[in-house]
Amino acid sequence: MSDSLTTLISKVQALLADDGTLFTTAIVTAAAREALKIYNQHLPVNAGTLITGVNDQYEYELSDEDSRALNILDVLEQGDSGNEIDISVTFDEYSEDERIFFRLRAPVTTSDTLIVRYTIPQTISGLDSETESTIPAWMSPALVTGIAGESCRILARSKVTTINLSQEQTDNFRDVANEMKAEYRRDLILAANKKKAPVGEPDPRAWNDAYHYWGQ
Fold first, then answer.
1. Could you report the average pLDDT of every consecutive run of 10 residues in the chain (216 residues)?
2. Are 159 and 166 in contact, with CB atoms under 8 Å apart?
3. pTM: predicted TM-score of the whole model, two decimal places
4. Distance CA 56, CA 66 (A)
5. Residue 152 near residue 180, CB atoms below 8 Å
6. CA 2 from chain center: how many Å?
7. Gap between the Cα atoms of 184 and 53, Å rounded
8. pLDDT of residue 187
9. What spatial distance separates the first Cα and last Cα of the chain, rounded to whole Å?
10. For residue 215, is it left (φ>0), alpha (ψ between -120 and 50) or beta?
11. How many CB atoms lie within 10 A of CB 213?
12. Which residues contact 137 (CB under 8 A, 6 or more apart)?
């Protein structure tokens, strides 16, 4: 089961050998927000939805189907009973009024179903009113490291605006932050390289094929 914010705070404080005196709940919560932002840049959730085609319609809005959508990975035409292979279709993605759309190069019909594969952000239960933790349990240690690093970075920054009689202390926090952040990013990159989105059968037709638009 994925960790909630409360559990992550306890694990971060334990990793930093702190009882909450230095790394308070407020600091670790702010750090979790930053670490989650980095996580979503590398490992967002791969999601998918089905959209029924509309005759002679080129443009479709993905945000209407899922307001959390970040970007589109692929659009496919779902295979029918005689052809179970899902074929990738050519499309252009664009954003307007903070909503995500895609435009087909060739229209489909109402008898066609489009499979849209896209990404949505990971969430942590208890952070910013979220009720579900979507990050898998096996990635929790990496996330804890990332949050701990951001916590050290926040603490180092806080010393800049106060009377600091020990410059070495600030430098030490900054060094630990950089070390943990580098480890965190390595873990995310390794996991991202193993995480593959499902793909469809590429369209085998050439753009100049005499039968390119046959049946469309």
1. 92 97 97 98 95 96 96 90 76 95 95 95 97 96 98 87 67 93 96 82 58 53
2. no
3. 0.85
4. 23
5. yes
6. 16
7. 42
8. 97
9. 47
10. left
11. 9
12. 1, 2, 3
- For 172, other C-beta atoms within 10 Å of its C-beta total 13
In terms of Cβ atoms closer than 10 Å to its own Cβ (0-12, 13-18, 19+), residue 170 is middle
Q: Which structure tokens are listed for 210? A: 């005499």
Cβ-contact 107, 16 below 8 angstroms: no
CB 117 within 8 A of CB 197: yes
- Please report the DSSP string for 33-60 in residue order: HHHHHHHHHH-PEEEEEEEE--TT--EE
Provide the H-helix boundaries in the chain: 5-15, 25-42, 140-158, 167-194
Query: What distance in Å separates the CA atoms of residue 119 and residue 100, rounded to the nearest whole number?
Result: 12
- Where residue 135 falls (left for φ over 0; alpha for ψ -120 to 50; beta otherwise) is beta
120's CB contacts (< 8 A; 6+ apart) are 44, 45, 47, 66, 68, 69, 70
